[in-house]
């Protein structure tokens, strides 16, 4: 089969799983039963949307992949979210952050339905942009804070791939270039687009890409795009 035929087949399989076994209302039904009072459920959903925006921002900016369901913990009492194994993906051939997944972050139909259209377009999308603006004004502060963490990732990459000792100059260049990649992604989320477009058009485009069925279907089985 060609790549296009494989993509169509994967999309059809995902649709069949959603129709027969895993509808997009699983999480919504569960938390509605957890919060019989709608006011409490509304507060939970608002807090969840803010928290999940922070997780998605980190996932996108830091090139973090493999956001499997078991790596995301949700507090039923508050709506707070904890993410485990938040490890950036690095190209095995070159020491650059690179996430091969087609989606910028995890925003499956179940998560989208739980937040609802108002929270998705209002709270979630705006929170993504607000976080980016807070971290990139001024820009140089974020780059300085990142340098220490990026340096550790570069040293780990060199050790894991048996690249020998990396010189201080090489390490400095790798840290600067990778920090710049992260900052540029954050700036792209924070900057309003040109022309007569919404201020958060960049985040809206990312959300559209994240919920695209074809992109979701391209994920591996452990990713569980239907959940």
From TrEMBL:
Q: Which SMART domains match?
A: PI3Kc (SM00146)
One short Pfam family name for this protein?
Answer: PI3_PI4_kinase
Give the PI3K/PI4K catalytic domain ranges.
1-198
Task: Please name the GO terms of the biological process aspect recorded for this protein, alphabetically.
Answer: DNA repair; regulation of DNA-templated transcription
Instruction: Name one cellular component (GO) term.
Output: nucleus
Start and end residues of each FATC domain:
195-227
PROSITE patterns named in the record: FATC, PI3_4_KINASE_3
SUPFAM superfamilies registered for this protein in UniProt: Protein kinase-like (PK-like)
InterPro entries recorded for this chain?
Answer: DDR_Repair_Kinase, FATC_dom, Kinase-like_dom_sf, PI3/4_kinase_cat_dom, PI3/4_kinase_cat_sf
> How does the record describe its quaternary structure?
Associates with DNA double-strand breaks.
Described function: Serine/threonine protein kinase which activates checkpoint signaling upon genotoxic stresses such as ionizing radiation (IR), ultraviolet light (UV), or DNA replication stalling, thereby acting as a DNA damage sensor. Recognizes the substrate consensus sequence [ST]-Q. Phosphorylates histone H2A to form H2AS128ph (gamma-H2A) at sites of DNA damage, involved in the regulation of DNA damage response mechanism. Required for the control of telomere length and genome stability.
Question: Which PANTHER family does the annotation name?
Answer: ATAXIA TELANGIECTASIA MUTATED ATM -RELATED, TRANSFORMATION_TRANSCRIPTION DOMAIN-ASSOCIATED PROTEIN
Protein name listed in UniProt: Uncharacterized protein
């Amino acid at each position: 089969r060609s790549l296009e035929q494989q993509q169509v087949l994967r999309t059809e399989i995902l649709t069949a799983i959603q129709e027969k076994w895993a509808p997009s209302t699983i999480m919504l039904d569960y938390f509605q039963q957890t919060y019989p009072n709608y006011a409490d459920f509304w507060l939970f959903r608002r807090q969840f949307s803010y928290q999940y925006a922070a997780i998605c921002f980190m996932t996108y900016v830091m090139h973090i992949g493999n956001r499997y369901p078991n790596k995301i913990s949700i507090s039923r009492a508050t709506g707070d979210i904890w993410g485990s194994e938040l490890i950036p993906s690095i190209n095995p051939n070159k020491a650059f952050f690179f996430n091969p997944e087609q989606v910028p972050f995890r925003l499956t139909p179940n998560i989208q339905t739980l937040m609802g259209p108002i929270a998705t377009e209002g709270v979630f999308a705006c929170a993504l942009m607000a976080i980016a603006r807070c971290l990139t004004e001024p820009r140089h502060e974020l780059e300085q804070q990142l340098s220490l963490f990026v340096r550790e990732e570069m040293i780990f990459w060199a050790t894991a791939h048996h690249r020998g000792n990396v010189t201080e100059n090489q390490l400095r260049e790798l840290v600067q270039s990778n920090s710049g990649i992260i900052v540029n992604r954050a700036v792209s989320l924070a900057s309003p687009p040109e022309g007569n477009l919404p201020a958060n058009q960049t985040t809206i485009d990312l959300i559209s890409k994240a919920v695209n069925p074809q992109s979701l279907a391209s994920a591996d089985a452990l990713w569980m795009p239907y959940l």
